[in-house]
Amino acid sequence: MVQRLTFTEPGPARPPRHLADLDEGGRAAAVAELGLPAFRAKQLAHQYYGRLIADPHQMTDLPAAVRGVIAEAMFPNLLTTSAEVTCDAGQTRKTLWRAIDGTTFESVLMRYPRRNTLCISSQAGCGMACPFCATGQLGLTRNLSTAEILEQVRVGAVALRDDFGDRLSNVVFMGMGEPLANYARVVAAVRRITEPPPTGFGISARAVTVSTVGLAPAIRRLADERLGVTLALSLHAPDDELRDTLVPVNNRWKVSEALDAARYYADATGRRVSIEYALIRDVNDQPWRADMLARQLRRVLGPLVHVNLIPLNPTPGSDWDASPKPVEREFFQRIRANGVSCTVRDTRGREISAACGQLAAEGS
């Protein structure tokens, strides 16, 4: 059953500075600007990252006289929940966010028996133009700020705590946008997601995934950050001729360049790279492409790779659909037979357009 809730939307404005935009030095400087003692910076960070509070009026360890000043200077209300849609008996929840400039984007919270995963956006829309992805067909509106990214995480963690008595365990940058096209803000957000309180949310780096369509130089740069997060490379085709069409950025960085960058990432971090591959009927699901994909991955990445097959999710106006199950099984079996680890993704949220490739800021 699909449930819909609608909320009041704020007026337009540009996002001002927020505590979550600031690193430790920035927080110290902001507190000093307000004429407050230095220890208040750590106190505010603990409230935000440790206690998940973003309203200084609820921070009882602050003097009442300064709460309003701090709220105005460091805790603007960046996001409003415009709508929520749930399915899977409430275990999957898609949120439509509206920023103070009217920009809309989405995140998806998914509860599983042994983990709770939040899929977040790094951009409003996407400029990568992949034709099978609803977000890619929107075009890019703008990058999200670090705080707009982190507010998705904080609110998701609050929802899990208050609604289910549970904790957020996994964060995936697989919502709207190309994370590595918003590189500086995404890296800053990853640091604050993974650092322990009072400077971050304390989620294990191994439980954070950053997805990319293959911006090879940015993949190498991310490897050098030594963040230890999982890299997910959205490949979708093993040959340049097809991938030039399915993933237009391939016209700039070819399959071999993307895979070489992924190998650099694996070597630098010791982490296995996830290869995302959406199976599209009669487009990229041929047995020979399964063999070609597996051979390439085995040669370039060796054991440091895992293929995640994704049954294509329907998007409005598209004539493409998912590969039939027998075709999917053969593709899977051929990859495994070639000695490459492989699974088929358990798709969540398809009926509320919350699955991979379906996010399109509906209701905006």
What does this structure look like?
The chain is built from eleven helices and 13 strands. The protein has two domains: 56 residues, Orthogonal Bundle (DNA polymerase, domain 1), CATH 1.10.150; 251 residues, Aldolase class I (TIM Barrel, Alpha-Beta Barrel). It is elongated, with a radius of gyration of 21 Å. α1 crosses α2, α5 packs parallel to α6 and α10 runs parallel beside α11. The strands form two sheets. The chain has an eleven-stranded mixed sheet, covered by helices on one side. The protein has a two-stranded antiparallel sheet with strand order 6-7. With 364 residues, it is α/β, with parallel strands linked by helices. The chain starts with a strand and ends in a 20-residue tail after the last strand. The N terminus is likely disordered. The longest helix has 19 residues.
Strand and helix map with partners:
Layout: E1 3-6, H1 24-33, H2 39-50, H3 64-74, E2 79-87, E3 92-99, E4 104-111, E5 116-119, E6 123-126, H4 134-138, E7 139-143, H5 146-164, E8 170-173, H6 183-194, E9 208-212, H7 216-225, E10 230-234, H8 240-246, H9 255-269, E11 273-279, H10 287-300, E12 305-311, H11 325-337, E13 341-344
Parallel strand pairs: 5-8, 8-9, 9-10, 10-11, 11-12, 12-13
Antiparallel strand pairs: 1-2, 2-3, 3-4, 4-5, 6-7
Helix pairs in contact: 1-2, 5-6, 7-9, 10-11
